[in-house]
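Minutes, methods subgroup
Present: GH (chair), OT, SY

1. OT presented the first of two proteins processed in the latest run. Sequence and structure tokens recorded below as shown on screen.
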Amino acid sequence: MFGSAILEVGIGLVIIYLLMSLMVTQFNNVISWTLKLKARLLYTYIKDSLLKGDLPGFLDHPLLNMRGEDGEVRRDATWIEPDVFANAMANASVEKVTRALNMFTDSENRQAVQQISSELLLELENPTQTLENLQNLKQTTQNIRDFRQKDAVIAELDEMIVTLTEYQQTEGADARIALLEREVQTLNNYSLRTSLSLLLESINDFNDAIQRLARWFDEQIAETSQMYTRYINIISFVVGLILAIIINVDTLHIANTLYQDADLRQSVVEFTEGNLTEIEALIERSQAQIEAPTVTEEPAVGDDDTLQELDIEELEGTITDIQVVLNLLTESQVPIWWGEDNRFISLGRVIGWFITAVATTMGAPFWFDLLKRWTGKSVPHTPPPAAAAS
């Protein structure tokens, strides 16, 4: 059809690599969903590498909300916006105290604490008002009986009161800056404490501090994207190799068979041209699932059961797409699968599987773009389904 056996063999190999890469991506989505890979990687990196074990409980801050009620990392907590992280760190001291106070069960005192805590968070710009709220909170805490963490909370409140008492004498003082600087100085890790102290030197106002913290977080957290890519590349190769063995996608055998059979080459080329639109739709759906949702000031809406149902629906859609790809592989008529004529394993077959596995790590979009260039076909753009886009 193209007048070149080599080009037609290349097209045959590329369509197989494309379908295999697409299936590997879909399996990666299932693996990532099952293991909560993105969320666990982000949580572990921030807790151990970024914060270096400091600020225990910080990632449970309401603005971050990285763990569910069961204490497990939320599946959809795969990214944190830098400004959200910065604002969470800015009121970490207050949140730590109120979180501890909300653990006791005395309903009368709980209501009083929640009221003062709410006022405290609303009045953080004003050192005088914040200091008064802290003193009221301390008094309420002292009146609580049978509260195991009372002494620790009172000690924390005393330190915050001392900090604000000294700081409120400064012209244009902002209590939020004082509490943020105090939080930085209480960090145990020297390098982290020094880095953040230098970062917050000579700040103009609280918004400037937030912007600096956000930029710092954005620069540091970029490492997680690189780490995730490395993990996925390894997983892709392993999954690709397993699938190549199960389906018997031997690159050397396929290339040799296509080169020797002109009718098969023409059939494969016609199959390729006739299914480009469907394949592009599959790629768009798989890529939409890869896009990471973000943890913003308004985390995922809905209770745990609703979110679980949405996860399962997405998973079922991925499994359906895997079946579609398997059907396309069969319809391509390329010599794959095990049979009487290819039931033996040889060194050449192992090499063929290995080449296929390496090819799948390039990703379906790469092979799809290459296929369009080789065939000279343009595919009308079809936006992904609303469910996938959302």
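2. SY then presented the second protein from the same run.
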Amino acid sequence: MPQINKIAVIGAGNMGSGIAQKMAQEGLHVVLVDIDEEFVERGLNIIRQTLKEAVERKILTAENVHDILSNIIGTCDFEMVADADLVVEAVFEDKQVKFDLFAKLDQICSQKTILATNTSSFYVHEFAEKTSRPDRFVGLHYFYHPAKNRLLEVIPHEKTSKETMPSRSSRKVRSSSLISNGAHEWIFHWSADTIFSRAANSSTSTKQVCAFRKSTWRRQSTA
């Protein structure tokens, strides 16, 4: 994945605001977009509340919170995402709404921009085909709460280029990542080093994922 400095998140609900917070915590500039100012403000308030709780629990300092919030801009103006390096869609699971959104983003965004969907219900290629950049389209499935849960499922489709895929150097985006073969498995955990070393030769198969699923879930549940 190319150098990422500016990210746009479309959809300021619980998941979208969480993704925006996670990216901002990593020091990236984030534009949080929704169709109504009320929705944008609600998303920003969710972030503020989550950060407040982190301060109360002594996870973050007031200075940390100031720096994180200064990295986030909330807006209804889609033109503000035109120069983003990466745009992550996090709207509700309606296929037509996502179709229309990606067609719009494809027209607005620079050719360098990578488009990503956070969908947990649909095939990534269905949305990629609605754009003129299927090679720069990927699934980035965050798990709730994105700012607290470091797991990220990366879902390429058959036309996703190698350059689009997160690399070891794109830690700010990928957290602890698992590369899926597009089968939409709910994957709980696998170390990033293991994933990326194996992915260098071939995609992680659904069978491999399932083999780790039960024991890993048990470890997480008792942690």
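Chair's summary of item 2: DSSP finds eight helices and eight strands in the chain.
Next meeting: continue with the remaining queue.
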